[in-house]
Design goal:
The chain has helices at about 15-35, 60-70, 85-90, 95-100, 120-125, 130-150, 165-175, 185-190, 195-210, 225-245, and strands at about 50-55, 80, 110, 150-160, 215-220. By secondary structure, it is α/β, with parallel strands linked by helices.
Length: about 260
């Protein structure tokens, strides 16, 4: 039995619950973002914040990102999306194209897909050799550790939906002329390799879930539920990261 077979996808929120909690969560996120940027009571900047999104195709990553940035000033965040690497990017270490988008102290960035493509799509589709993707787990963990120890809060999300809900969303996208661009032939092909992807995802969680940057698996079966929980988890992660940043002795335990 795969990990995803044990994930509860039944969570739902009413419209009233959603509106109440999304407002509170967005308001809190705005306060936290202004705090780390030095825009509130003190001009001193805080840690950087990097939010990493992975998940099922059509799992709701874009909608969750939209609700995160909605209350923020456009100058206070950057969204980076990653597809297959270019010819020039392939000539460099696979982490290079991500490294240059990582925020500095006081900054905030959101990644729609990330370095985890090396151990997911590149593994399953054969774009990386077995030696490369097996080596990547430790490279990724050490990369994340180094960022956190230097003052970057990393919050990693996996948005999961059922195969039935995914098919429904694919079909809805196909019918909608302004959303059809979001559906590709690759999305359909990935459904035919679901067992291979499940194996890759499970190994990814087992080998890259570490105390400095743990995974947060969120049900995306209902979009309202997913968006609220992503925001609330993110706020807790930033609060905990600020506390660590303001008491730097914690790093001694990971030196």
């Amino acid at each position: 039995m795969h990990l995803f077979d044990r994930i509860d996808l039944s969570g739902r929120l009413t419209d009233e619950e959603y509106e109440t909690r999304i407002y509170a969560a967005q308001r809190r996120l705005l306060e936290l973002r202004l705090h780390i940027g030095g825009h509130l009571d003190t001009p001193q900047i805080g840690p950087g914040v990097l939010i990493v999104f992975e998940g099922s195709d059509a799992g709701g990553k874009g909608g969750a990102i939209k609700r995160i940035v909605e209350p923020l000033d456009p100058r206070h965040y950057r969204v980076s999306t990653f597809a297959k690497p270019s010819f020039d990017e392939k000539r460099k270490h696979f982490l290079w194209r991500f490294w240059k988008e990582v925020p500095g102290l006081g900054g905030m960035a959101l990644f729609d897909r990330s370095w985890y493509g090396r151990v997911l799509v590149e593994r399953v589709e054969g774009y990386a050799t077995k030696e490369q993707w097996k080596r990547a787990y430790e490279e990724i963990v050490q990369f994340e550790r180094s960022l956190v120890l230097e003052g970057v809060i990393i919050v990693k999300f996996w948005l999961q939906i059922s195969a039935e809900e995914q098919l429904r969303r694919f079909q809805n996208r196909q019918k909608d002329p302004v959303r059809r661009w979001k559906l590709t032939d690759e999305d359909w092909r990935n459904r035919d390799k679901i067992e291979q992807y499940d194996d890759a995802i499970e190994e990814m969680f087992n080998r890259t879930n570490h105390v400095l940057a743990p995974w947060h698996i969120v049900s995306g079966e209902q979009k309202k539920w997913a968006r609220v929980h992503v925001l609330e988890i993110l706020n807790r992660g930033i609060e905990e990261g600020i506390a660590r940043f303001e008491h730097p002795d914690w790093r001694d335990a990971y030196a």
